[in-house]
Specification:
With 142 residues, the protein is an alpha+beta fold. The chain has 3 helices and 8 strands; from the N terminus they run E-H-E-E-E-H-E-E-H-E-E. 33% of the residues lie in helices and 39% in strands. Strands 1, 2, 3, 4, 5, 6, 7 and 8 form an 8-stranded mixed sheet that branches.
Length: 142
């Protein structure tokens, strides 16, 4: 079972290296990437400065493995990679990276939408919003 968690933000270099690794896979005709970035939301007149992500890692990896298996069967994917940050991620930094590949674009678009939504709903991953004044609250996924 693959560990999908990365300590700290997901860097542009990590993302570009992931893309580069797929250039040798000639059966792929389409890729789709979703990047989740920490927003500077204003909640009750306080601005979010960062989110501190935690997870039940073993359980989350198992849930993601099950999601991955279902996605391959449902969408006829060639490749699928999911990565999520742990620890404090500042506004503007990338915390979620989903990369799907298939022979055709139809599959990657449908898979991306499904996977983003199911990860938010099913994976035991938690975010504590840290405000500029250093107060905090648990994040509610929308």
């Amino acid at each position: 079972m693959k560990n999908v968690f990365i300590k700290g933000p997901i860097t542009p270099e990590f993302i570009s290296n992931s893309i580069a690794k797929h250039q040798t896979k000639k059966e792929i005709g389409a890729h789709n990437i979703f990047l989740g970035q920490v927003r500077a939301d204003v909640i009750k007149n306080k601005k979010v400065a960062a989110i501190n992500f935690t997870a039940y890692e073993d359980m989350a990896n198992e849930v993601l493995e099950n999601i991955r298996e279902k996605a391959f069967k449902t969408f006829n994917l060639t490749c699928m990679h999911v990565y999520h940050s742990l620890g404090e991620i500042k506004t503007g930094e990338i915390c979620f990276f989903l990369f799907v590949s298939a022979k055709h674009s139809k599959e990657v678009y449908a898979a991306t939408e499904y996977l983003v939504n199911i990860v938010k709903k099913k994976v035991p991953l938690f975010g504590k919003e840290i405000f500029e004044d250093q107060t905090h609250q648990w994040k509610v996924n929308n």
